[in-house]
Design a protein that fits this description.
With 270 residues, the chain is α/β, with parallel strands linked by helices. Helix content is 40%, strand content 16%. The strands form two sheets. Strands 1-10-9-6-5-4-3-2 form an eight-stranded parallel sheet. The protein has a two-stranded antiparallel ribbon with strand order 7-8. Helix 8 (215-224) crosses helix 9. The chain is globular and about 50 Å long.
């Protein structure tokens, strides 16, 4: 995703209301963990504790986190909480707090969670992430929930450290909403700019899409003798898109990691 920086194709996320079993993920062979300051201090500490307890060399793990910035409309309760706790702190300071909560001196990937209320604020916040990376505190930086036009506007400002990743809600059942970059135009824009495309909610949960009961997904799953979740994940990763899934069930985690054991046909990928 950046010079000398490799990211797993599948990562485990989780939020305050639905934390994942991070320790089981690492025990089963998963190596990518995804979190965010807005998911809550408790989630950050859980992720950090799982990393510390795993006994795995730090260089074997890939840790993604996100720094808050809220759009003009507070469309999520996370923004309400953030406004109370962290609004007066600059993004660099928030990034330092985040790393301390995770118990690491460096995060592998730090994302700007959303575009801010204005592009001017968005660029200023991204500049803080650039400085964080140049100071060696993040191996790579990126963006989240940016659509094609927001990406163009960000690049137009002139960047010192370009975004390595854009993480958006994206799944086999939901890839046509442009507002938060959940569409194929944004995927094409990322490829044009050399930005790795990452899909949170590849099973549709946070995006409000019922992927697991989608007739097409169920038909393909039956044809390959795989679960609907495995088909949905493979549809994402077979395109070279990074998946960020979530679960507290070890059996589901093992199934997610097993989604690379088969390939979909060209017709099934359409």
């Amino acid at each position: 995703i950046a010079p000398g920086v490799e990211m797993p194709l599948i990562n485990l996320g989780g939020v305050h209301s639905h934390p994942s079993n991070y320790s089981a993920w690492l025990q089963l062979g998963g190596r990518g963990l995804d979190t965010a300051m807005m998911y809550g201090d408790d989630v950050q500490v859980q992720v950090g504790d799982a990393v510390a307890a795993s006994g795995l060399p730090r260089e074997e793990l890939f840790l993604t986190s996100k720094v808050p910035c809220c759009p003009a409309e507070s469309f999520t309760s996370w923004c309400v909480w953030y406004d109370k706790e962290y609004k007066d702190l600059d993004a660099y300071t928030r990034s330092e707090i985040d790393a301390r909560l995770l118990g690491v001196g460096r995060v592998d990937l730090l994302l700007l969670h959303w575009p801010c209320a204005t592009m001017e604020e968005t660029v200023a916040t991204y500049r803080s992430l650039e400085r964080f990376a140049l100071d060696g505190k993040a191996s790579a930086i990126g963006i989240s929930n940016f659509n094609a036009s927001a990406i163009d506007a960000l690049f137009a400002a002139g960047l010192t450290v370009p975004p390595a990743v854009n993480q958006v809600g994206f799944s086999i059942g939901g890839h046509s909403e442009s507002r938060l970059g959940r569409d194929l135009d944004t995927l094409r824009k990322c490829r044009e700019k050399g930005i790795a495309f990452s899909a949170y909610s590849p099973l549709g949960g946070l995006s409000g899409v019922d992927v697991l009961h989608h007739p097409r997904v169920l038909k393909v799953a039956a044809a390959h003798n795989r679960s609907a979740a495995q088909v949905a994940l493979r549809w994402v990763t077979q395109q070279g898109v990074v998946a960020v899934s979530a679960s507290s069930n070890p059996a589901h985690l093992a199934s997610d990691l097993g989604s690379f054991s088969f390939n979909l046909t060209g017709a099934e990928m359409k």
